[in-house]
Amino acid sequence: MLGPVILAASRSDRMRRLISAAPVTKQVVDRFIPGETVDQIVPVVEELTGKGLELTMDVVGEDITRPEQAAAARDAYLRLVDRIKDLELGERVEMSVKLSMFGQALEGGHELALANVRPVVEAAAAIGTTVTLDAEDHTTLDSMFAIHEELRKDFPQTGCVIQAYLFRTEADARRLAGNGSRVRLVKGAYKEPAEVAFQQKREIDKAYVRILRILMEGTGYPMIGSHDPRLISVAQELARRAGRKLDEYEFQMLYGIRSDEHLRLAAEGHRMRVYTAYGTDWYGYFMRRLAEKPANLRFFVRSMVSK
Ligand code: FDA
C-alpha cells in the first residue's frame, strides 16, 4: 500500500525539497543513478558495454515549467550524443527521452516537444543509433504517440513505450505491432486512476502477457522492459513460438536492479539493454524506484536513521 503514497510524493514540491536535501539521500540515489554529468557517465557506458550489455541513456528530468528548460534538456542529450560518438558503439547505446522534459506540458507543448526532440533523434541517427520515447502518465500519451508517428516518417527506428496497466494498451499494441515499430513494453510506473488502469498486480501481469503476445506475433521489434522472472520466461517462450531469433527482440532492465540477471541473459546470447539514468534532477525517477519495491524505502529510511 506504500507504493501509491510514494508516487503521490513524487509529484510534491515540498517532498522534493525535503528528500533532495537529506544528507544520506545521495548515497542511496547512486544505486540507481550512477552519475550526474556526462564526464561521470561515459566510464559507466564503457564499463557496461565492455561486459556485453547494451544501454539506453536517460538524462533525468521531467515536469519542467519554462521553455528554456526544454531547450536545456535537448542540449543535454546533444552533448551526450556528441560524447558517445567517439566510442563508436552505434545502436548498442541508444537514448530514452521523456517528452515532458522537452516541454510537452507547456503552452503549445506538443509542437514544442516535437521541435526539441527532433534534433536529438537526428543526432542519434547520425551516429548510427536511435531514440525511444518513454511513456509518462496517461494524459500525455496521445501526444506521445502522435510525435512517435511523426518522427518515424523520417526515422523509422524511433521507438516508444507502452504500459501494460492501462486499458488502452492492447489496442495501442495492435496498431504498433502491425506497423513494424520498436516497442518497449513495461508494467507502468505512475499513479493512475481505476477508470483507466488495472490496479492489481495479478491483472497487470496478465495484461502484460496478452500484450507481449501481440508484439511477438507482429512485425515490429519487441523490447521487454521488466525485471519480473516469470515474465522473462514467458517472453522467451513467446519469442520461440513466434519463431523469433535472438536478435529479433531484446530484454531491458533498469540500472541497479537485478544486475546479475543482466549479465546472465547477455551470456545466454540475448540482447540485454540497461536503462541508465544520469543527471541532477533525479527526484521523480528515484521516487518511482522506491515505489516499485517497499524494501528500497526501508533501506532508504534505515540509512537516514543510522547516519
Ligand atoms: P515488478 O515490479 O513485479 O518487479 C519484479 C521484480 O523485480 C521484483 O520482485 C524485484 O525483485 C525487482 N524490482 C522491480 N523493481 C524494483 C526496484 N525499483 N528496486 C529493486 N528491485 C526491483 N515505466 C513507465 O511508466 N514508463 C516508462 O517509460 C518506463 N520505462 C522503463 C524502462 C525499462 C528498461 C524498465 C525495466 C522499466 C521501465 N518502466 C517504465 C518502469 C516499469 O513500468 C515498472 O515500474 C518497473 O519495471 C517495475 O516492474 P517490473 O516489470 O520489473 O515488475
Explain this structure to me?
It contains 13 helices and eight strands. Helix 1 (2-9) runs antiparallel to helix 12 (283-292), helix 8 packs parallel to helix 9 and helix 9 (201-217) packs parallel to helix 10. It has one domain (33-281): TIM Barrel (Alpha-Beta Barrel). 51% of the residues lie in helices and 13% in strands. It starts with a helix and ends with a helix. The model has no long low-confidence stretch (mean pLDDT 93). Strands 1-2-3-4-5-6-7-8 form an eight-stranded parallel β-barrel, surrounded by seven helices. The protein is globular, with a radius of gyration of 18 Å. The relative contact order is 0.16. It is an alpha/beta fold and 307 residues long. Bound molecules: dihydroflavine-adenine dinucleotide (FDA).
CATH secondary-structure class? Alpha Beta
SSE run? HHHHEHEHEHEHEHEHEHEHH
Helix content: 40-55%
Cα-atom radius of gyration: 18 Å
Distance between the termini: 27 Å
SS elements, strand count = 8
Summarize the entry for a quick read.
The protein has 307 residues and is of the alpha/beta class.
Topology at a glance:
Layout: H1 2-9, H2 13-21, H3 25-29, H4 38-50, E1 54-59, H5 67-85, E2 93-97, H6 109-126, E3 131-133, H7 141-154, E4 159-163, H8 169-178, E5 182-186, H9 201-217, E6 221-225, H10 229-241, E7 250-254, H11 259-267, E8 272-278, H12 283-292, H13 294-305
Parallel strand pairs: 1-2, 1-8, 2-3, 3-4, 4-5, 5-6, 6-7, 7-8
Helix pairs in contact: 1-12, 5-6, 6-7, 8-9, 9-10, 12-13
The structure holds dihydroflavine-adenine dinucleotide.
